[in-house]
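tool_call: predict_structure(chain=1)
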Amino acid sequence: MRRKRRSDHSIWIVGSLILAIILLIIIIVAFVRHIQARKTGSMHSEEQILDEKYIEEWPDIDVQLLDVNEYSRPQIALDKVNGIVIHYTANPGSTAQQNRDYFNGLAQSGETYASSHFVIGLEGEIIQCIPCDEMAYASNDRNEDTIAIECCIPDETGKFNGETYDSLVELTAWLIGRYHLGIDDVIRHYDVTGKICPKYFVDHEDAWKRFKADVVAYIDENGEERK
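tool_result:
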């Protein structure tokens, strides 16, 4: 009788353990599906926002087009705008005007091929150097189908200050709407060549994801409904 009771008790323990394991598996599977559903829902939400809204009003842009020359403004037409490439200047403390003037000076110095469609300064000022329908020398293999944005930095960390960051969000949001791009069409120079540019967004992947989320949020909050 005791052996039978012990046997029944053992069976009950084993059965309870199996049931607990099954319940744990069910909970884990449900949790994973919930996380995946949230990610999918978020993705659809971002796509829906960009499909339904756009930034109509131009940012405050100081247009100072570079002189036409082979080193910084070759006046080659873009095939099509398929993306936006974010860069940083890598020279802490320099201004948007200084970087624009450096690009323009390449016509005389001929020391390298370099330019950008836009440069954003430390006070949030935006200077346009190249028309958006022309190619800039900024993003290597993606020069022919992207718009380049250079951002000034205050120090060696490469982190944009608040003024620069806010203007970058605004300019990127406007360009997305102008060319009907998706948020995944916004990339870093790093994503093209592996170059550590823009440094802070390469060193801090979370900051890069937050930037793209901020762009979508800006469009959602300030955008006009597409007709």
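agent: Confidence is low (pLDDT under 50) at residues 37-43. Proceeding to next step.
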